[in-house]
Specification:
With 123 residues, the chain is of the alpha+beta class. The protein contains three helices and five strands, in the order αββββαβα. Helix content is 28%, strand content 33%. The longest helix has 14 residues.
């Protein structure tokens, strides 16, 4: 049973591009702007989690932050809305930032984008 689980874990890691070279990858990131609000700010971030796989997100930071703070990693889905796919989730990140937490809301990869990434790496 352990051999089967280990083999499955290895196959999943390989298919996700997490082979032995994954540890050598340096995560490259950039800040693409800042939105100032009364009690917090939003940093617009993008980084490569794997070579060629870009992840975007919003980093909510309390304005009063002067020391390291507890951090929330918030993963949400997408929901159609005229003001953006994450509009219906923003109130949670705002609440966290307004109550002394740092909150990183990552844009999740939908199945089609992940499949396209895997297909591009294997062809």
């Amino acid at each position: 049973m352990e051999e089967t689980a280990a083999g499955a874990a290895t196959a999943i890691a390989r298919n996700a591009g997490l082979g032995s070279a994954a540890g050598a990858h340096c995560v490259e990131g950039a800040n693409h702007g800042r939105l100032e609000r009364d009690a917090y700010r939003i940093e617009k971030l993008v980084f490569q989690s794997l070579p060629g796989l870009y992840v975007t997100g919003n980093f909510y930071v309390p304005k009063s932050a002067t020391k390291p703070l507890p951090t929330i990693l918030y993963l949400c889905g997408h929901s159609p809305h005229p003001l953006g796919a994450k509009f219906q989730y923003q109130d949670r990140a705002i609440w966290f930032a307004s109550h002394g937490f740092v909150c990183l809301v990552l844009d999740t990869l939908e199945f089609a984008r992940w499949r396209a990434f895997i297909m591009a790496r294997t062809t």
